[in-house]
Amino acid sequence: PDRPPEADELIVAVEAEVAGGKSNLWVRCLHRAAPLQSLATKWAIEHSIPEAAVGYEDPAGSPLDLSASPDALRWSGAEVVHIFAVPLDDAFSEDP
What is the pLDDT of residues 10-19, one digit of tens each? Predict the structure, then answer.
């Protein structure tokens, strides 16, 4: 992450597929009570992608509710939480 997590935060790694079948891993701290939307907003800004063009999934491929917090999702934070950014708009997909 960009800094060590504080006591009320956990580490979230967002993986996104990029050109050539490679992936990009973006790692940040997130407050346990903050909605995932706050993380999604930061990710979109830093990647110059409209927020509406990307969705987020858990490792099983299930869509994440961005209004939910890590606490609401029962993420313990004992380990890094790994989620995936997925294109919702073909214009931002590596495989249109």
Answer: 999 999 988 7
Instruction: Specify the DSSP class assigned to residue 44.
Output: H
**Has residue 95 got a pLDDT over 60?**
no
Distances (CA, A) of 91 to 20, 25, 38, 45, 68: 17, 21, 23, 17, 27
Which are the contacts of 93, defined by CB distance < 8 A and separation ≥ 6?
Answer: 87
SS3 8: coil
- CB 42, CB 65: distance < 8 Å: no
Q: How many degrees, rounded to 5, is the angle at CA 57 between CA 51 and CA 59?
A: 150
- Looking at residue 74, its amino acid is R
Instruction: Say what the pLDDT of residue 93 is.
Output: 65
Predicted TM-score (pTM) of the model is 0.88
Please, what is the average pLDDT of the chain? 91
What are the C-alpha distances in Å from 83 to residues 15, 39, 57? Answer: 6, 11, 6
